[in-house]
């Protein structure tokens, strides 16, 4: 049984399924536990599982929650070989992102990354704890001058391919970390 099929049966059953499978219970144990379900008062559901009673309100649904959090306008929603979508705005080309700042970045290859091209990361206040550099299709070594410029800096560098850099950046933004991103467009999807 998949989570998708459980979700179609309601929020309370989905939560019970997640708890059961996370604790290592088999599907048959989950089905037995969920068959003991009965409605409580005021539209809530009581679940019996392994001798435990759990009560869940059926009122809120998954649509009632903002799963991206308060910083949703800062995450990279999607990308293509043409550009990035950040907070609903499409940027055509490489980008530099930090907090509410979104800039087009005139870098097309890792060899173009110089200390001057990353000046924004050192000029903003407060300085980011981490600068994630998305190198495009694959991870590549940054030029030595760029590494030297950040060697004694407050900002650490993380060099990844662009898809993994986006995922890492989005997670750290959601955690509320001071993280900046410099993303080069991938040449293929």
Structure commentary:
The chain has 189 residues and is of the alpha+beta class. It is built from 6 helices and 11 strands. It has helices at 3-7, 11-22, 27-35, 119-123, 144-151, 162-174, and strands spanning 38-39, 44-49, 52-57, 76-79, 83-86, 89-92, 95-98, 101-104, 130-134, 156-160, 179-183. Helix 2 (11-22) packs antiparallel against helix 3. The longest helix has 13 residues, at 162-174. Residues 14-49 and 53-70 have low confidence and may be disordered.
Brief summary of the model shown:
The protein has 189 residues and is α+β, with helices and mostly antiparallel strands. It has helices at residues 3-7, 11-22, 27-35, 119-123, 144-151, 162-174; strands at residues 38-39, 44-49, 52-57, 76-79, 83-86, 89-92, 95-98, 101-104, 130-134, 156-160, 179-183.
Produce the secondary structure layout:
Layout: H1 3-7, H2 11-22, H3 27-35, E1 38-39, E2 44-49, E3 52-57, E4 76-79, E5 83-86, E6 89-92, E7 95-98, E8 101-104, H4 119-123, E9 130-134, H5 144-151, E10 156-160, H6 162-174, E11 179-183
Helix pairs in contact: 2-3
Structural class: alpha+beta
Mean pLDDT: 75
Relative helix content: 25-40%
Oligomer: single chain
Overview features:
189 residues, 5-stranded mixed beta sheet, 11 strands, single chain, globular
């Amino acid at each position: 049984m998949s989570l998708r099929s459980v979700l179609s049966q309601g929020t309370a059953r989905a939560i019970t399924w997640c708890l059961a499978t996370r604790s290592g219970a088999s599907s048959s144990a989950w089905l037995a536990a969920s068959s003991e379900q009965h409605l409580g008062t005021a539209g809530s559901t009581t679940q019996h599982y392994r001798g435990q009673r759990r009560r869940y309100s059926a009122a809120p649904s998954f649509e009632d929650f903002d799963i991206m959090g308060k910083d949703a306008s800062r995450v990279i929603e999607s990308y293509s070989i043409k550009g990035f979508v950040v907070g609903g705005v499409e940027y055509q080309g490489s980008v530099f992102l930090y907090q509410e700042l979104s800039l087009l970045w005139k870098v097309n290859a890792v060899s173009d990354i110089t200390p001057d091209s990353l000046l924004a990361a050192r000029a903003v206040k407060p300085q980011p704890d981490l600068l994630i550099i998305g190198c495009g299709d694959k991870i590549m070594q940054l030029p030595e001058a760029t590494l030297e410029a950040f060697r004694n800096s407050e900002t650490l560098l993380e060099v990844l391919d662009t898809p993994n850099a986006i995922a890492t950046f989005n997670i750290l933004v959601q955690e509320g970390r001071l993280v900046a991103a410099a993303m080069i467009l991938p040449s293929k999807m």
